[in-house]
Amino acid sequence: MIVSAKAIYESGSLRLLEKLDLQEGQEVHITIERLDEDGYPMQETLADVLGFDPDDEEKAHALAESQYQAIQKIIGIATTDEPDDASERHDEYLYGEVTR
């Protein structure tokens, strides 16, 4: 069951603005959605979602090039007699060396 309620953050604690229909001691999972000054959910910027400023052409180009090279590597493996491990190592091909 999902329950939504508004709260105010004060002195390091959340104060609920309404009573919740919960049993005493019931464990819950909290998701915080920040609201703007008008009470609307704050929107993430494209830079927040991408992890870099999309107006930074140098970083965007570098990311696109690294992804292009990764795809070319996967395609190259698929067209050779080498064992195809792309389904297991796709993150490594796309993002570089993966540390475990």
Question: What features would you describe in this structure?
Answer:
α2 runs antiparallel to α3 (86-95). The radius of gyration is 23 Å and the shape is elongated. The mean pLDDT is 81. It has a domain at 47-95. The protein is 37% helix and 8% strand. The chain is built from 3 helices and 2 strands; from the N terminus they run ββααα. A two-stranded antiparallel sheet has the order 1-2. It has helices at residues 46-50, 57-78, 86-95, and strands at residues 7-10, 13-16. 0% of the residues are buried. With 100 residues, it is mainly alpha-helical.
Radius of gyration, rounded? 23 Å
Strand order, largest beta sheet: 1-2
* Average pLDDT for all residues: 81
Share of helix among residues?
Answer: 25-40%
Q: Please state the overall shape, judged from the principal axes of the Cα atoms.
A: elongated
Q: What's the number of extended β-strand segments?
A: 2
Please state roughly what percent of the residues sit in beta strands, choosing from under 5%, 5-15%, 15-25%, 25-35%, 35-45% or over 45%. 5-15%
Distance between the termini: 36 Å
- Summed up, the helix count is 3
Contiguous low-pLDDT stretches (5 residues minimum) are: none
The structure class reads mainly alpha
Secondary structure: elements and pairs:
Elements: E1 7-10, E2 13-16, H1 46-50, H2 57-78, H3 86-95
Antiparallel strand pairs: 1-2
Helix pairs in contact: 2-3
